[in-house]
Design brief:
Helix content is about 65%, strand content about 0%. It has about 250 residues and is an all-alpha fold. Helix 1 runs antiparallel to helix 6 and helix 3 packs parallel to helix 9.
């Protein structure tokens, strides 16, 4: 958990710098993303490199990657003897329905952002800030509160999340609207991560279900990312329940 919160602190710091650069001069802030590395390395070049390295680690996951992303690796599959294939296929169907419902909701929300962009109500600097906001929101979802878990996926935790590796595609969706090498390389690398995830999910679904993979059980969990989120989620559900009873 300490390591996760250190990474969260890094993301908050990076986003804080982005906000500072935007407030100082938003046009120059955007120009940082179009400057060639040969003309000098700037903060946005470093962020691009960090993003690309993170996504490469999800395409070729190392041993130290969290189990949420690492469950697709064969080495992390510890089969539960005599698991029910019928239950596995039921799990696959239910998870697919929820996953693509989440995808449609995400695309609809970002279509609004795209419309604002084409109507010139927001510009390239604002799209960069939205991407930065998504960057920290990714870890908010992992550590504190995840609306996808509450309203969409309803998975037990991040380790068991069906759409765990969709995060980078979600994160860089706004980059599709900015036509530069840096923005499109991030977007299409995020697309490569999600395509690889879906391939592994389709080919090896037994690795993704706690009913067939012992590694995904709470007893064997080493990530412990639910420590804070479990209480927050419980309180939020109780709030919704009480509000529903009052109405």
């Amino acid at each position: 958990m300490r390591f996760y919160f250190l990474k969260f602190a890094f993301r908050l710091t990076a986003f804080g710098i982005m906000i500072w650069l935007y407030i100082k001069d938003k046009h120059k802030f955007y120009e940082y993303t179009t400057t060639n590395i040969s003309d000098g390395i700037n903060f946005m070049h470093l962020m691009w490199a960090v993003f690309m390295i993170l996504m490469l680690l999800h395409l070729i996951p190392p041993k130290f990657i969290s189990m949420g992303g690492g469950k697709k690796r064969a080495v992390n599959f510890k089969m539960i003897p005599n698991y029910s294939e019928a239950e596995l296929y039921k799990f696959i169907h239910n998870e697919n329905v929820k996953a693509w419902r989440s995808m449609l909701a995400w695309l609809a929300g970002n279509a609004v952002i795209g419309a604002l962009y084409f109507l010139k109500l927001i510009g390239n600097p604002e799209l960069l800030l939205i991407t930065g906001f998504y960057f920290i929101s990714d870890y908010v979802c992992i550590l504190i509160f995840c609306p996808f878990q509450i309203f969409g996926q309803k998975d037990r935790c991040c380790v068991n999340c069906r759409i765990y590796d969709w995060g980078h595609f979600f994160m860089f969706t706004p980059m599709l609207f900015i036509r530069t090498f840096y923005s499109w390389s991030l977007f299409f690398m995020g697309a490569a991560v999600i395509i690889h995830w879906e391939y592994m999910w389709t080919k090896y679904p037994e690795r993704f279900w706690f009913g067939s993979n012992q590694t995904l059980s709470c007893a064997n969990c080493k990530d412990k990312t639910c420590a804070i989120k479990k209480d927050v989620t419980k309180q939020f559900k109780n709030l919704l329940k009480n509000k529903k009873q009052i109405s």
